[in-house]
Design brief:
Blueprint lengths: L6 H14 L12 H8 L3 H13 L3 E4 L3 E4 L14 H7 L4 E12 L2 H7 L6 E11 L2 E11 L16 H8 L4 E10 L2 H7 L6 E11 L2 E11 L11 H4 L2
Antiparallel strand pairs: 1-2, 3-4, 4-5, 5-8, 6-7, 7-8
Length: 240
């Protein structure tokens, strides 16, 4: 007769199956401990141990206040560092220019809430801008900032400094996540980036966090013909 697993191990195995089967894809919000206690009819301590072991295995990411989400598989984890676009352009010996397209204080829409992991109606700052290299559009930036975590951003107009540069200087984020995808330019994006509609583009989505919650979420859209990602890493350090 097979040895019966401890209750916490049974719960962990059940949660693992939801992840490995694809029912819970990367980024999916895992039910709260309270919800899992009700689902499995056990103590909160038992659920907490199961979740702690799942987090230790790298299958989920636990964040205070914002909850637990399914992690990316190891093969998809980003090794990118957060780059300051003006410095990146300057390192290439090119002339940099920044253009603010729009700035608005607003209550979080449903999409804002999903991007920042906040409640609809919370105060956010939305900033859209364009970065140039040698007078040619390099990247279109679409950013939302959580004013509950970065309240000083409310008083910055961002007409003379890019929000990414300001956040890197003012907010000591503790965790970041990149998602990289390919897309074709819409008519509006093609106009902004001075490319043809349906031109291949590279989109880098990034979120940064503090213990208090998500600081910001940004979508950076690059014309595929003008940008490439290069990552250098040392397997003896980064592969640990």
């Amino acid at each position: 007769m097979a040895e019966q697993l401890p209750r916490y191990a049974e719960i962990r195995r059940s949660l693992e199956q939801s992840i490995l089967s694809g029912d819970w894809p990367p980024g999916h919000r895992v039910p709260s401990e309270q919800e899992l206690v009700a689902r499995y009819g056990c103590s909160r301590m038992t659920v907490n141990r199961a979740m702690s072991e799942l987090a230790a295995s790298g299958m989920v990411i636990r964040r205070r206040r914002t909850g637990t989400v399914v992690a990316l598989p190891v093969s998809q984890k980003s090794v990118l560092k957060i780059q300051n676009i003006p410095e990146e352009v300057a390192r290439e010996g090119r002339d940099y220019r920044y253009e603010l397209r729009s700035r608005s204080l607003r209550r979080a829409s449903k999409r804002d809430a999903e991007r920042l992991k906040v409640s609809a109606g919370d105060a956010v700052l939305a900033v859209k801008s364009l970065h140039y290299a040698d007078g040619i559009p390099l990247v279109a930036e679409d950013r939302v900032i959580n004013l509950a975590v970065a309240p000083d951003a409310r008083d910055v107009d961002f007409s003379n400094i890019a929000p990414g540069s300001w956040l890197l200087a003012k907010v000591q984020w503790r965790e970041a996540e990149h998602l990289i995808r390919a897309t074709n330019a819409t008519a509006e994006m093609a106009r902004l980036l001075e490319i043809e509609a349906n031109h291949a583009c590279l989109v880098v989505e990034r979120s940064t966090w503090l213990d208090a919650g998500t600081v910001t979420h940004v979508e950076l859209t690059y014309p595929g013909s003008r940008y490439q990602l290069t990552v250098r890493f040392n397997p003896s350090r980064d592969g640990e």
